[in-house]
Amino acid sequence: MLVVDFGAQYAQLIARRVRELSVYSEIVSHRLTAADMAARQPAAIILSGGPKSVHVEGAPQLDPAIYDLGVPILGICYGAQLIAQQLGGTVGRGMRGEYGRAHLTRTADSSLLHADIPDSHDVWMSHFDAITEPPPGFRATASTPDAPVAVLEHDERKVWGVQFHPEVVHSPHGMAVLRTFLHDLAGCEPTWKMASVVDEQVARIRAQVGGERAICALSGGVDSSVAAALVHRAIGPQLTCIYVDTGLMRKGESAQIVETYGRHMNLELIHVDAGERYFTALAGITEPEAKRKAIGELFIRIFEEHTGGLTRDSDNPAKFLVQGTLYPDLIESGGKDGTADVIKSHHNVGGLPEDMTLELVEPLRDLFKDEVRALGSELGLPDEMVWRQPFPGPGLGVRIIGEVTPDKVAILQEADAIVREEIAWAGLEREIWQAFAVLPDIRSVGVMGDERTYGHPIIIRAVTSDDAMTADWARLPYDLLEKMSQRIINEVRGINRVAYDITSKPPGTIEWE
Ligand code: XMP
User: Fold this and answer.
1) What are phi and psi of 143, to 5 degrees?
2) Window from 101-115, 348-362, 485-499 with minimum mean pLDDT
3) What is the CATH number of the domain that holds 93?
4) In the chain, which end has fewer C-beta atoms inside a 10 angstrom radius, N or C?
């Protein structure tokens, strides 16, 4: 199945939904010709949405010969409007947009809107223009108040279009629409499994790396562990893994990571103790992006010092750097082609120095976290790796607001250990996406044992999420919060106040920097 990308926010989400329906999918550019498209022998094609109006100059087009390939096509939002425009229908220049929830009503018999779907139901919309007249031979089968042709269908030609977004969870019957298109109308067999990703990626990695050596930046987290396991399966001893202890890890974490890797993964592992170098690099830096770039840069310099592997084979240095970059990391760092807004430079993407000599291998860059976890299990990684809560590459460096110093790290490590311990004891580890402590750069007045204190607060942050693209603050029980607060104040030197962050993402981000 090919997803043709017109610059959509949701192209990956569409591809992911298709994978959930057990059909293999790839994302391709809208610039592919019909011949290129046919050469890939797709069983079906989905045209994504996109930010442009079909009426503006330079609006992305599709080679019209694609409609004559006989391959079933489903257009979504912009994709549907393009079908209408290219095949002779009319797309009105909207006088008003339709964003968010809208009520869709079936107006005729429909092949796409399966009989089990109610005649009238909610869908998620995000468009300004609207199809007003379907192309000759097409039937309009549903509408909303602002989209007179919200679904268009041509069964003989095998071309369908929907104005709404079936791929988002806010369209409750969206998966049913996609399932009908893929399984019933396009006849795609639901046979694809996560195991197939392993075979595909192994072949891809072998083709990219050839006989060269690669190094992998292991952080202890699920993403880099899965990336390492995958690349190790592909190129075996050509891979050297490097774990850099930045001094910004959580309490006891480095020893535990090195022990777990030793026990479960038969890999060449170099452990670099670089705490002092990081504190030197971070001295005097307070601006979050500057911190991220400094941390990212030092990571690369350290990796470059170890390209010869454990044997320091300087005649045959590694040419590739393996990273566990995920799709949400790429989107927040500005997207694959830099068209999205930069929210923050994830150290494994935007924080890389420009003069880096290593070529990147990123086998997880099209996947979401839960898919990576499934892949990790498929590769036989233990639960303690697969279900480890996400931890950012820049570590506690982005949870200390202001300058990062060894003293502050020590304070934060203690407070953070209490938060995580209490979450674990309450049995909430899997329910909570991330729970941690943040040390802001302020002090406040308190009273402890009849004495005035002027200490730092700790902010507790706990969120629920499916993929870190959006998140909600976790409704932790008050008793649990109270226990955390008491323990932090009693056990951590210099802390006299605890606050709980009740901001979702958006508008906040999960990390504070
Ligand atoms: P934000 O703070 O952007 O975080 O809502 C989304 C998810 O990404 C993690 N995160 C990072 N992971 N390198 C990483 O490997 C980074 O630079 C980085 N910054 C944030 C964060 O912990 C959350 O799970």
Assistant:
1) -145, 165
2) 348-362
3) 3.40.50.880
4) C
